Amino acid sequence: MRLTMAQRAFNPLLVTLATAFTAGVVVLLLVRLPLTAKPQTALTASVLLLVPGVPLINAAEDLITGHLVIGWARGVQGGLISMAIALGLWLAMSLLGVPR
């Protein structure tokens, strides 16, 4: 999903949201099989590669070194990516009727 949408030049936040949604749906469908005792762990692991570690670390480094504007910009970018992941998982959980 991520590769296909990225090749077609979709908005990166939309790519992240759609990838998190797809991963969440797949995991939640597989969780219905008795393969795991901890579905929360499987759901978390499904989007682990989407976590914006580099922008958040660079934001912290820029803020510490005094580059405030770029530090805030990278921090907001990391926050938006995190929100897209959360929204994608929430949509998947809402679609499949998983209680929160």
Automatic annotation (TrEMBL):
Pfam families: ThrE. Keywords: Cell membrane, Membrane, Transmembrane, Transmembrane helix. The keyword Transmembrane helix applies. GO terms for cellular component: plasma membrane. The keyword Transmembrane applies. The chain crosses the membrane at residues 12-31, 80-98. InterPro entries: ThrE-like_N, ThrE_Dicarb/AminoAcid_Exp. Signal peptide: none annotated. It is a multi-pass membrane protein. Residues 1-95 form the Threonine/serine exporter-like N-terminal domain. One of its GO terms (biological process) is succinate transport. It is found in: Cell membrane. GO terms for molecular function: transmembrane transporter activity. Belongs to the ThrE exporter (TC 2.A.79) family. This is Threonine/serine exporter-like N-terminal domain-containing protein. It comes from Ardenticatena maritima.
